[in-house]
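Backbone shape codes
____________________
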Amino acid sequence: MSKLPNVTTSIFTIMSKMAVEYNAINLSQGFPNFPVDERLTDIVSRLAKENVHQYTPMAGYPPLMNKIAKLTQDSYNRIINPDTELLVTAGATQGIFTTILALVKENDEVIILDPSYDSYESPVLLCKAKPVRVALNDDYTPNWERIEKACSAKTRMMIINNPHNPTGKILTENDFIQLKNLLEKYPDIIILSDEVYEYITFEEKHISAHTKSFLLDRCVTVSSFGKSFHITGWKIGYTIAPEYLMKEIKKVHQFLVFSVNSISQFAISEYLDVVNVNLLGKFYQEKRDYFQKLLQNSRFELKPCEGTYFQVASYAAISDEDDVTFCKNLIINHGVAAIPISTFYSDHKDQKLIRFCFAKDDFTLESAAKKICQI
């Protein structure tokens, strides 16, 4: 008997497989296709011949952990103890899975804001807990009245994603005021803040949970080197949490992963000495602006994108097809792969919206845009 009877092949796998089958340009799955920084690859090349291939300590390579602590302080003015409040993870998804498995018990409830990343719900179900899916407003802002109504004495955790995948929205100062008010009414709720796109923001910087004092003793934040440094295949990230929560998270981590691959930890530790994460937003803003310019004469309506490397677009003026069918036909008939937004909702809410990934080189964006503009 399956523990996850309703889980099937993910839409990302389906669309990427179809893109290969039909030789389509893949703007579906969220990974860059341009080269990694040569400074990083040079570090890896040198380290490969050094003695860096054995287990690191379970929580992470100490020099890397110290540099993550400094990065957190420099970015958010938050001082953490790397020995007790930090864990290096095998990607952000493992950090999310481990956190939920460690902190959520049978019959607990977990608030998930839709549209949402598909890896949130499964670990909740594996805990024999109840995922409570709450839809954002149609403009993808949180509906705090609706969220509060979904909370109860059983609510153990709420997951927030900021900047938000798939919509590219960022939370506002008022959102955090509303969150603070809610948590005062429910003092036992833990926040899991997925901030993997934290350095990919544009006109406005995202407001991190790290900067809110009311969250520091009840929040687990998840970050991703894979997203920040265009190395998604390395599967390396980290979580930060107060010591009493981190103790529980580490208990699960040591039996799930034990320690993250060593060479990536050594390499990123060195790379943090030379890279400037504050330039990342400018880099991707240029990508976003260029992609939007390329599509300005298309029949798609582009939605606001405040962060991440995803562009949501409406095809309502083009077709009445449901978004899954539209995306499949987009691959088959037009040679471009995208992701249907309905798959991020528990009820598969269809608003004729799809998601493009613009973390691609200019040639790929230009080639895709040419096809899209012909639709």
About this structure: The radius of gyration is 20 Å.
